[in-house]
Amino acid sequence: MTSKTVGDALRVPSPSDSRQTRPIREDEAGDLIATAARAPSVHNTQPWRFRLTDGSIEMFADTRRQLRMDPDGRELLISCGAALFGLRLAVRSLGYLPVVELLPALPRRRQLARVSLGATAPITEGERRMLNALPHRHTHRGPFAGAPLPDGLLAALQHDARAEGAMLAVIDPASSDYLQLGEIASAAARRGDLDPWARAEVRRWRRAADSRARDGVPARAFAAGAFPDQAGRRRGRLRQRDFDLGRGMGLLTADGPPAAATAVLITRGDSQADWMRAGQALHRLLAHAADRWVFASLYTQPLEDATTRALIRDRLRLPGPPHMLLQFGAAQTTQATARRPPSEVREPARRPSAPGAHHGPRRAPPPVPSAVPENP
Ligand SMILES: Cc1cc2nc3c(=O)[nH]c(=O)nc-3n(C[C@H](O)[C@H](O)[C@H](O)COP(=O)(O)O)c2cc1C
After folding, report:
1. What average pLDDT values come out for the chain (376 residues) when binned by 10 residues?
2. Which residues, 6+ apart, have CB-to-CB distance to 335 below 8 Å?
3. Are both 159 and 122 inside the same structural domain?
4. Smallest CA separation from ligand 1 atom 12, residue
5. d(Cα 6, Cα 101) in Å, to the nearest integer?
6. What local confidence, expressed as pLDDT, does residue 110 receive?
7. What residue's CA is closest to ligand 1, atom 4?
8. In a domain, 54, yes or no
9. How many CB atoms lie within 10 A of CB 159?
10. 112 and 162 together in one domain
11. Which residue lies with its CA nearest to atom 26 of ligand 1?
């Protein structure tokens, strides 16, 4: 296939690429949705719904799963953007270019995107590798192996972010920027961990070791006790969100070598479309890293407070609003975090519309053919 970046695709939506070539079949939809639902989401809330309509998969935000700490829905839309990337990648496994229509979020329905099968194009090696990495990709809160990142990986992840319309700013661990970031993040995490609403929300979404829940953050994915500030800084790890809250539930140890790299995911603007972009970029670069057995700790607690978010942008001189702090490291072990089955995230199918009937919102932007482009 000719690899086309999403940026290119946004500039030149070729009419032949942006047409549905054949409908997605019912027997394909389950796998496509299951792959989309492997996406990371804040507190593993999985705030998405899908529906197969007229051969396309529509994606909705499930605002019942929106966090109180996320009143604007930014983290919800980053999560949904990540699921959209998974859906695009899954469509590539069928040998088609995904045609993505980003839909303006409607006040009540929260319909976000519609994905159809576009032109045929065999899946590339890079896409296949990302797809194969999805089952073992996970948010890594335990110790890293301490090995350096594979040569060129960080630059390739920056390329991933750019290809999705975002940016990955790498922070030198020896710089004063890193120290400042560590201090700001620690102070914000300490405040967040004391906030009764934030604590209630963590209690709602963390899961005990014997829980059979298919959402939320399981005890084996977080440490007992927050990272102490001083030790956290020495280890080169930012202070993590405290899922344990003094209960001794977490099964991970919070010790180990420093992270191999620290980065901030940013976009140019701060609109809902930017949040969706950030989510697609996030999932893409995490899948790419996981293919090399590199995983990331993710941090949004310091960005949930507008003042702290602005401070981080200002102090690090970032060219856009930050959406996620990431620390990367190699790790050999993995245990995937559970997801709800497709039956729980699917809406019943709508009755097919009459031939020629338009089923989308009136002023939807033109369809966007979006291959997952190769990395250099
Ligand atoms: C928008 C967003 C915000 C997140 N914020 C945090 C965070 O502050 N701290 C954390 O440890 N993990 C964070 N995560 C990771 C989620 O908790 C994780 O994706 C979820 O539990 C599913 O687990 P998995 O990534 O291992 O599949 C965030 C993920 C997303 C998409």
Report:
1. 32 55 96 98 98 96 95 96 98 97 69 95 97 97 93 98 98 95 93 90 96 97 70 71 93 87 98 96 98 97 96 98 98 90 88 51 42 47
2. 138, 220, 221
3. no
4. 298
5. 13
6. 83
7. 42
8. yes
9. 20
10. no
11. 138
Q: Which atom of ligand 1 is nearest to the CA of 75?
A: 1
> What domain count does the chain have?
2
Element (H, E) at 97: strand 96-102
| CB contact burial 301-316 (16+ within 10 A = b; e otherwise) | bbbbeeebbebbbeeb
Structure tokens at 31: 């796998």
Going from the Cα of 83 to the center of ligand 1, the distance in angstroms, rounded, reads: 13
Looking at ligand 1, which atom is closest to the CA of residue 217? 21
| 300 and 198 housed in the same domain | yes
Residues 42 and 92 occupy one common structural domain: yes
Model confidence, pTM: 0.90
33 and 166 within one domain: no
Residue 376 lies in a domain: no
Q: Among the atoms of ligand 1, which is closest to the Cα of residue 41? A: 31
Distance 31 CA to ligand 1 centre (A): 23
Residues 288 and 303: their CA atoms lie apart, in Å, by 24
Q: What pLDDT is attached to residue 6?
A: 35
Q: What pLDDT does residue 219 have?
A: 96
In a domain, 302, yes or no: yes
d(CA 281, CA 265): 8
Q: Please give the distance, rounded to the nearest whole angstrom, from the Cα atom of residue 271 to the centre of ligand 1.
A: 21
Q: Are residues 162 and 62 in the same domain?
A: no
Atom of ligand 1 nearest to the CA of 141: 11
- DSSP three-state, residue 165: coil
Choosing from 38, 42, 222 the residue with most ligand 1 atoms within 8 A of its CB, the one to mutate for a pocket test is: 42
**What range does the domain containing 355 cover?**
6-135+338-369
Which of 300, 308, 312, 334 to mutate to test ligand 1, by most ligand atoms within 8 A of the CB atom?
300
Residue nearest to atom 17 of ligand 1 (CA): 43
At residue 376, the pLDDT reads 35
Same domain, 19 and 164: no
Query: Which atom of ligand 1 approaches the CA of 241 most closely?
Result: 9
Is residue 280 within 6 Å of ligand 1 at its C-beta?
Answer: no
